[in-house]
Amino acid sequence: MRPIPSAWQGRRVRRFSAAGEDTGGTFSAGSFRPILYLPMNTNRRPAGVDFKRVQAHYDLGDEFFALFLDPSMTYSCAKFDTPQTTLADAQLAKIDLSLGKCELRPGHRLLDIGCGWGATAVRAHEHYGANVIGLTISQNQLAHDQKLAAGRPGLEFRLQGWETFDEKVDRIVSIGAFEHFGRNRYPAFFSRCRSILPPDGVLLLHTITIGKPNEDWDFLRFVHFIATEIFPGGDVPPPELLIAAARAASMELVHVESLRPHYALTLDRWAANLESRRADAIAVAGEDTYLSYMKYLTGCAALFRSGECNVHQFKFRVA
Length: 319
Prior knowledge:
Elements: E1 13-15, E2 37-39, H1 51-58, H2 62-65, H3 87-101, E3 109-113, H4 119-128, E4 131-136, H5 139-149, E5 155-159, E6 171-175, H6 186-196, E7 202-210, H7 217-230, H8 239-248, E8 251-258, H9 260-276, H10 278-285, H11 287-306, E9 309-318
Parallel strand pairs: 3-4, 3-6, 4-5, 6-7
Antiparallel strand pairs: 1-2, 7-9, 8-9
Helix pairs in contact: 6-8, 7-11, 9-11, 10-11
């Protein structure tokens, strides 16, 4: 294992305990055994919606992401019934797994927080008979989604964060968005969900989570690369912290499922797709971006295989 460099002595760091608590402080080698160190911006994150942070990731444009995603443009972990399952079928299987856990009935009002390019919302509307409101804070995604909603009454997309949404809904689904929220906003998120759901309400939350501890320097450098170059402001939650915040808001955890091996395979497929379109990717976004995304996709696949990263679906009911 490579030691953490002496240059980090005395630097301000984020220090996460096993329970996911950020105790902060100044680094001193050997003073504690970390789960994760990252250089820390001592300025507090704004309480409002981080439009600029999220938009920064999607500024590359739909044309770039279409090079490696499936035709539905689903940008989250798929679920493979077999290793031979196509990426498109695996993404549909994940969407149906998620919506099935929501216990949707025709006419239900579903809120899709972080709806991406709209595949889950469209499926909920067309196959499950739900009236769907999809929230995104990406201008690119909104433009795409509004085309999907044209001529489909009961399917609506908005450029809006969950912080300002206060309408009553029957069910909530959020796939791959929670990582953008930040730990200081977990209590507000679950309180907002609890306040807009009915007594029989269900929240299905699909998110990457912190896996087993790793203090190797190469691992920490890669995590820093992801947090600064790929997902600015991203914050992967420890599952314990997420669950505690939900319980404090009177949301009962009724089911948890890990899809970790499926995400490794998803990332493999994305990387293979992007590599096969190398010339197109460089033409669209430049060679540096192509190389960064190959590093991101292949490196993350390895972390999901080894267990440093996990991905869970959490099903909550109103308590």
